[in-house]
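thought: fold this chain, then report.
action: predict
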Amino acid sequence: MSLMTYWNKKVKKLDWSDIALLKLYVAAVVLLIAKLWTPLLSLDWYWYLVIAVLAGAKPVYTFYIK
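observation:
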């Protein structure tokens, strides 16, 4: 069994509240990292936009197109 197959089986057991809490957890960890590592927040605003577009392109494509 590959790692992706294993995680897909585990994710299918989650309901909507688990996924919402997981998103909140990830957001909190990202904010903690940004708080502890100050240079991360010193980038110009457009770098965050580029990162967001690149990170969100495939999930948005998969959700709306496929």
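thought: worth noting. The two ends are 26 Å apart (CA to CA).
final: tokens above.
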